[in-house]
Design the sequence.
């Protein structure tokens, strides 16, 4: 009687059953470094509180997703720099899918009872999500740049240098506007400068430069699709912040944050931040005309819409983009 392999014993009727691995073969656990990964959860409470494992794993998972987001955004920007908006959009859409997951993931924290969190929360101080280097990198890389955050890493020179590089480097917001400028849209040079792009006059001009794309998406299909993906990302980032505020309030109330921030009040102040504020502002500038709106208006004409109808004008904000709330929140 021939001895069967372990895999064949599990799958006796499958002629293509996987073979037992040899000692020198790369395995699933080797490839993903699972043994090492499972040693990275080290509770600070003594004895370890049951819920601290959940708290550690959910935040470690966030850091892994942040790493992937930076990986994908870097790829997207490379295609923007090459004037390939549809290729860039593919990777932005992947980030949007990740961000949707992150919005849902934060609510797992709500399965902790507030009193249980208090049993180990004091052991975390002064550690805080406020100090997440990768999340700051995501913000900076997208264009939400605030050099004040660099000072919180003064005692970690290598981290301070890494974040400073993101602050000083090119960002996705500038890259997208630069691509549109190369494409012949009326993008002002100042909109490409992080130091000037939120000035009222510049912000207003950049907002108006986006209007032709939004008013005639069929004529500017590739640019339109990329811009919709960028605003979808921005929306998910805002939703993550808003859900984070509610979860923190539910779990700790209005206590001070472990890192020294004001907690919920500080988190609320960040919900107005936006990576692409001009994309939001441009929506109030749109004007519907007989040549805009694509197929839906042509169908209306074919159906015998009244002749001589005047275009329907959307309300227009005549104030400056920044003065009317560009949502960047960088102060």
Sequence:
């Amino acid at each position: 009687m021939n001895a069967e392999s372990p895999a064949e014993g599990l799958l006796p009727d499958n002629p293509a059953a996987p073979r037992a691995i040899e000692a020198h073969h790369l395995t699933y656990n080797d490839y993903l470094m699972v043994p090492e990964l499972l040693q990275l959860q080290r509770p600070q409470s003594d004895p370890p509180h049951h819920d601290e494992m959940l708290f550690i794993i959910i935040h470690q998972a966030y850091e892994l997703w942040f790493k992937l987001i930076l990986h994908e955004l870097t790829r997207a920007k490379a295609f923007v720099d090459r004037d390939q908006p549809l290729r860039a959009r593919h990777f932005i859409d992947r980030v949007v899918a990740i961000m949707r997951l992150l919005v849902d993931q934060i609510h797992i924290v709500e399965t902790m009872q507030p009193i249980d969190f208090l049993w180990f929360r004091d052991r975390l101080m002064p550690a805080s999500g406020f100090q997440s280097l990768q999340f700051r990198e995501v913000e900076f890389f997208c264009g939400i740049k605030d050099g004040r955050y660099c000072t919180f890493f003064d005692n970690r020179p290598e981290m301070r240098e890494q974040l400073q590089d993101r602050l000083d480097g090119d960002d996705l917001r500038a890259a997208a506007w630069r691509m549109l400028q190369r494409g012949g849209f009326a993008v002002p040079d100042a909109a490409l400068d992080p130091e000037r792009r939120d000035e009222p006059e510049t912000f207003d001009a950049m907002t108006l430069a986006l209007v032709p794309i939004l008013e005639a998406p069929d004529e500017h299909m590739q640019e339109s699709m990329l811009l919709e993906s960028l605003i979808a990302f921005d929306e998910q980032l805002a939703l993550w912040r808003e859900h984070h505020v509610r979860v923190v309030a539910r779990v700790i109330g209005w206590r001070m944050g472990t890192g020294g921030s004001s907690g919920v009040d500080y988190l609320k102040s960040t919900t107005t931040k936006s990576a692409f504020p001009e994309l939001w502002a441009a929506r109030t500038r749109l004007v519907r005309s007989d040549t805009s709106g694509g197929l839906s208006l042509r169908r209306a004409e074919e159906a015998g819409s009244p002749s001589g109808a005047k275009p329907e004008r959307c309300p227009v904000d005549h104030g400056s983009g920044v003065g009317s709330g560009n949502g960047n929140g960088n102060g």
About this structure: The chain is about 55% helix and 0% strand. The longest helix spans residues 50-81. The CA atoms of residues 174 and 193 lie 7 Å apart. Residues 45-121+172-289 form a domain with the Methane Monooxygenase Hydroxylase; Chain G, domain 1 fold (CATH 1.20.58.480).
